[in-house]
Specification:
alpha+beta; 10 strands; single chain; about 250 residues; CRR_secretory_protein; five-stranded antiparallel beta sheet; GNK2; secreted; Gnk2-homologous domain-containing protein
C-alpha cells in the first residue's frame, strides 16, 4: 500500500511537471505559431504559361529568396516583376525560412499560374506582382481580423489607449537608428496590459511607412475599436495588439 506521504509527493511531482509543460507550451506558442491568415490572387494581372520566361524568372527569384530568407527579408523588382518576402520582426533564421517554404507551396496551390499573388502567415508574407511596385504603398490588399471578445466597459478610454500605443510604436519604428521599420511595446489599460506591434515592408521609406500605418488605422476603425485584440494586415504594413504577449522576446 502507498502511504499518504508518498501519494502527496507524487501529486506534487505531477503538479510541478504540469507547470513546466505549461511554461514550455507558452514559450512555444510565442516562437512557433505560424497560422495561415489570408491570400489573394491578383486576377487582373492574368496568368503565365508553363515554360515561359515569366515562370523561369519566378523560379530563379524564389531560389534566391530561399537562400536569403535566413535574413528575414528579401526583395526583387524590375519592370515586369516584383517579389517581396517579409518575415515578422522576431521571425528570422530558420523560422523565416520555414515560413517562406510553407507560403510558397501554399501560394502555388491556391493561386496556380497567376502572375500576381499574395499570401500572409502569422510570421511572414510572400508577394508577387507583374509590375514594378518597389517602395509603393499597396492600398488595395489589406484586411482586418479582430478577436470575438469585446471590451465591455470604458470603451472610449480603451480606444484612446490603443491609439496612443499604435502612434508610439509607429514613431519608434520610423525614427532613430531603427532601419527595420518594426517595433513592439505595451501600454496599461486599467488592470490589464495591451501588447502591440507595428511593421512595414522594408522597401518603404519611413514617411511611406507612417502613411501606411495611419491609413490602415483610420480605415479599419470598425474592425479594431472595442475588440480585445485585432490586427490589420497588408502588403505594405501591419499592426496588431492583444491582451497577451504574442512576440518572442529578443
Amino acid at each position: 500500500m502507498y502511504s499518504s506521504s508518498s501519494v502527496s509527493k507524487r501529486l506534487i511531482l505531477i503538479y510541478v511537471l504540469a507547470i513546466q509543460l505549461l511554461l514550455i507550451n507558452s514559450e512555444l506558442s510565442l516562437n512557433t505559431t505560424n497560422d495561415y491568415l489570408n491570400h489573394t490572387c491578383l486576377v487582373s494581372q492574368g496568368k503565365y504559361k508553363t515554360g515561359s520566361e515569366y515562370e523561369k524568372l519566378i523560379e530563379h527569384i524564389m531560389k534566391m529568396f530561399y537562400i536569403n530568407s535566413i535574413r528575414g527579408y528579401d526583395l526583387f523588382g524590375d519592370s515586369t516583376f516584383t517579389a517581396v518576402l517579409q518575415c515578422r520582426g522576431d521571425s528570422y533564421g530558420t523560422k523565416c525560412r520555414d515560413c517562406f517554404v510553407t507560403a510558397l507551396a501554399a501560394l502555388r496551390r491556391r493561386c496556380p499560374w497567376y502572375k500576381g499573388r499574395i499570401i500572409w502567415y502569422d510570421q511572414c508574407l510572400l508577394s508577387m506582382d507583374s509590375k514594378y511596385s518597389v517602395g509603393q504603398i499597396d492600398y488595395d490588399n489589406n484586411f482586418c481580423m479582430s478577436n470575438a471578445k469585446k471590451v465591455v466597459e470604458d470603451r472610449s478610454e480603451y480606444i484612446k489607449v490603443w491609439n496612443i500605443l499604435v502612434d508610439d510604436l509607429t514613431e519608434l519604428a520610423i525614427t532613430g537608428d531603427n532601419s527595420t521599420l518594426y517595433s513592439v511595446g505595451e501600454k496599461r489599460y486599467k488592470g490589464d496590459m495591451v501588447y502591440g506591434m507595428v511593421q512595414c515592408a522594408k522597401d518603404l521609406s519611413r514617411k511611406a511607412c507612417q502613411e501606411c500605418l495611419w491609413y490602415n488605422s483610420f480605415h479599419f476603425q470598425d474592425c479594431v475599436n472595442y475588440f480585445r485584440g485585432a490586427r490589420v494586415v497588408g502588403r505594405s504594413c501591419t499592426f496588431r495588439f492583444e491582451f497577451y504577449p504574442f512576440i518572442a522576446k529578443q
